[in-house]
Structures are given as C-alpha cells and as structure tokens.
Amino acid sequence: MQLFKNTNYNFISFRRIAYIISSSIILFGLIFYFINGGFNWGIDFQGGIKLQVKFDKALELKDIETIRNSLQAEVKSLGNDGKVFVIQRKLPNFIENKEILLKKARKENKIFKSYDEILTYLNLDKNIEEDFKKYFSLENMDKKVNINTAPLVLIKSKISNLMTNDIVKSFQDTLSNIFKDKNKYIIEGTSLVGPSIGKKYQSTAIYALFFALIGILIYISLRFEFIYSIGAIAALIHDILITLTVFAIFHLEINLPVIVALLTLIGYSLNDTIVVDDRIREIRKFQKGTLGDLINIAINKTLSRTFLTSLTTFVVVLSLFIFSGTVLKEFSIAFLVGIVTGTYSSIYIAAPIVLEFTKK
C-alpha cells in the first residue's frame, strides 16, 4: 500500500523554519520547568509507597475520594472494571533534617545515653522505639548499629527504613478502617521506595538514556558515516527534549514506565532515521545532484512507509491510552508525543543536519 506516489515535496527548504519551531517549543518547556520547580518525579524517583489493591466490588467515585482524602494519596485505576487500583503516595525527603541533626551531634561530640534522648533529639515518633532498639544500640553490640560511633550514612539509611516502614503500616491500617465492613479487598502488591533509593534511580535513568545515545552514535558511525550519526543523535535528543517539554508544561508525572517509553522511542525514532539515511546513501550512488536535492528525493521515496508506520503505531498507543486506565497514562502520552516528534525529526532534523554539516 502506497499513499504518496511520485511526490516531490521540498522538505529541505523548510528546515530552518523547523529549527525555529523546535527551539521555541524546547525553550517554552524550559521556562515551565523553572516555573513548576522542576519535573514532577514519581515515587520511583522521589520515594514513596505504592499499593496495588483488588476490591470485590467496583469502587464508586465517593470511595475513591475517601481514599484520596484519608491517605493524601493518588488513586489510579488499573483496567476498566473499577476493581483494581494502584494507590500511591510520595514520601517527602524527611530524612534530610535528621541528617542535619546527626551531623550537629557529631560536631558537638554529643554522646546519647538513652533511647528516649535519641528519639527526642531527632524528633522521631515514640511508636517506633521498639523497632529502633532492634537496629540501634548505645554501645558496640553484634548486629546492631552504634548510634554514637557508626558512620552517619549507615545511621541515616537505617532511620530512613524505620520511618518509611512506620508510614507503610499507618497507610495499610487506614485503608483497613475505610473498607473493613463495606468492600472486601486484597493487597496484591506493595512497593516501597525510600528517598535515597529514589535519587539513585533518577541518576540511573539519566545514565541509561546517555549510554543508549552513545551506543547509537557508535553504531551509525560504523554502518554509515560519522556525519549520519550526528544527524541521528540530534534527532533523538530533539525527540526526548520535546517529550520532556510536554511533561514540564503539564506537570505530568515522570515514573519508570515513562523512562521505558523514552528508551523505546529512541529505538523507534532511530529506525525511521536509518531508513531515510539508507535511502540517501543509496541514491547518492546512482544519481547526480546537490546533496539537498538527493535528500529530498530520499525523504519523498520513504514518505509513504514513514506515514503508515507512524499512523499504525499511533493508533495502537492511542488505544492503550484510552483503555488501559490511569496507571499507564503517562507512558501512553510519552509514546504518543514521541511518535509524532520521531516522524517529524526524521524528516526535518536528522537529514537536514547531515546537509548542514556536509556544507561546513
């Protein structure tokens, strides 16, 4: 099936307009990034608790509102039957002020002599005292952390675990009180990410994107020419930035599925770019003309394939957005935006960049 036959659109002539449009959108996103105080990181990257709960009966809107108000949590449906939900709440980076107090105590050479003194000094809830005694000691003991001499990193980690576990218990108790006589439920899964682990996930996600781009740079340099890899990388970075711009403007949550979507988009957009690059290389062998004219011919010859591939993928992801519930909403949005920008960048970013660098 071929929708576009014998087309002769002069795509290259609009490249500078495309540069201005893309730069303006990215700049707009940067402004909103600072207005909103950064990205809206999900609990995977900020820390928090996530429960997947299955109810016997479908929840009504008032039940969902009760959960939101009682737990100060987000409630996302999983599917369309109204019975399975993901309930999640971000945990503030509460451990930071404890670290400040611990550093102050060490600087003043303070020696804690009782558990009550420690809990009071660190402003910790008394209900975690028993668990606190299981992890910490006031002197050197096997399998326990000496609160007075152990490294601060270790103490901070243990206190963070205690506090998050206490929040989890409170979370589950509140949920039980809301539905104990109304609607039976089971907790199918519990996920807890501490604030420090969340930050580690942030850096890991950035590294994953960075090394994916480096790998692509090497691959295209070996398969084609280095100049083609510059165009491909520019297009991929463009696609990621445009997608993140949408998330910055609408303050959408960035979670692990969104990172998966970005990594998938890198492969999707790259495939489209390679098809165009391969056709450019093929045409340059058998046809004469300026590089700009040959690039136009290559894009026009692959236009039908590019459009059909993008359209079919877009329809599938749109169905996912409509029918998958709110859990995969951010994933679907990232993919939908990426499909559009990936198609656009293959035509107006990757190939024109090859032309610009070849001229220079």
Fold and architecture overview:
The protein is of the alpha/beta class and 360 residues long. The chain folds into two domains: 196 residues, Multidrug efflux transporter AcrB transmembrane domain (Multidrug efflux transporter AcrB transmembrane fold); 146 residues, no CATH class. The protein contains twelve helices and eight strands. The strands form three sheets. It has a four-stranded antiparallel sheet with strand order 3-4-2-7. A two-stranded parallel sheet has the order 1-8. A hairpin with a 6-residue loop joins β3 and β4. α4 runs antiparallel to α7 and α8 packs antiparallel against α9. The longest helix is centred in the C-terminal third of the chain and has 33 residues. The protein is elongated, with a radius of gyration of 27 Å. The two termini are 39 Å apart.
Q: What's this, in brief?
A:
This protein has 360 residues and is α/β, with parallel strands linked by helices.
Task: Give descriptors for this structure.
66% helix, elongated, Multidrug efflux transporter AcrB transmembrane fold, alpha/beta, four-stranded antiparallel sheet, 2 domains, 360 residues
Helices and strands, in order, run as: HEHEHEEHHHEEHEHHEHHH
Morphology: elongated
Summarize model confidence as the mean pLDDT: 83
Please name the CATH architecture of the largest domain. Answer: Up-down Bundle
Q: What fold name goes in the CATH topology slot of the largest domain? A: Multidrug efflux transporter AcrB transmembrane fold
Strand segment count? 8
Radius of gyration: 27 Å
Work out the count of structural domains: 2
Low-confidence stretches: none
Number of separate helices: 12
In percent terms, what proportion of residues is strand?
5-15%
